[in-house]
Amino acid sequence: METGKAILGRRAVRDYEDKPVPEEIIQKILKAGAMAPSAMGVHPYRFIVITDKVKIKELSGKVKDKIGILGFGARLAERAKIMEDVIFYGAPLLILIVAEKSDWAPTDCALAAQNMMLQAYDLGLGSCFIGFATMIKDDKETLRSLGMKDSQQLYCPLIFGYPKKWPAPKSQEAIVQKRLG
Ligand SMILES: Cc1cc2nc3c(=O)[nH]c(=O)nc-3n(C[C@H](O)[C@H](O)[C@H](O)COP(=O)(O)O)c2cc1C
Questions:
Q1: pTM
Q2: Three-point CA angle 15, 17, 22, nearest 5°
Q3: pLDDT in tens, 117-156
Q4: Is 128 in the pocket of ligand 1 (CB under 6 A)?
C-alpha cells in the first residue's frame, strides 16, 4: 500500500473480530515501531505484547476502576451502554509501548506508535491508541506482572485486530478546512 493511502485511510477501530493476530504479523508491527525515528537514535522503548484475552480483560477492569473514581465522560458512558469492553473493545492484541523516562521518550514512543498503526493498516488490521489505559501507570504491581520495570513509564497503549467493520474514511476536504484553515 502507498504510504499516502495508509495515512489517509487509517481510522480508529473500536470493534474487533474474535480472531487472533498471527505471530508474523505481530513481528511486522513491532519492526515498524522499532524503525521509527528517535531523538539521538536512542530508541528508548520496549514493546510489551499481550495476546491473552483474560489478561486484556483484567487490565480493562483495572482501567475502568480508575476511571470510575474520576467519572466516565459522556461519550464513554454512551459506549459503555452498548459495548462489553469499553476500554480495549475486544481487541485480541494489546501492545504497551514503555520507556525509561526522558525528555524525548513520549515523542519517541508516539512516533513508534504511529508507525505501528500505519503498518497494521497496511496489513489489513485495525488499531486504536488507548490513552485511557495509561491510567494504570502508577499501579506498579499490575505493570510488574506484565514485565514492566518500576523505572519504566507507560506511554502508548495500542490495540490491534481484525475489524468487524471498517469506519468510513474521513472527509479530507472538511479536515483540511477545519485544521489547516
Ligand atoms: C493520544 C491518544 C489517546 C487516545 N485515547 C483513546 C482512548 O482511550 N479510547 C479510544 O477509544 N480512543 C482513543 N484515541 C483514539 C482517538 O479518539 C481517535 O484517534 C480520534 O478520535 C480520531 O479518529 P481517527 O483515529 O479515526 O482518525 C486516542 C488517540 C490518541 C492519539
A1: 0.95
A2: 120
A3: 999 999 999 999 999 999 999 999 999 999 999 999 999 9
A4: yes
Looking at residue 82, its pLDDT comes to 82
The domain limits of the chain are 3-180
Ligand 1 centroid to 128 CA: how many Å?
6
Q: What is the CA 158 to chain-centroid distance, rounded?
A: 1
Q: Is 85 in the pocket of ligand 1 (CB under 6 A)?
A: no
Pocket test for ligand 1, best of 7, 97, 130 (most atoms within 8 A of CB): 130
25 to 56, 95, 102, 114, 180: CA distances (angstroms): 19, 13, 30, 16, 35
* Residue range 3-180 in CATH 3.40.109.10: yes
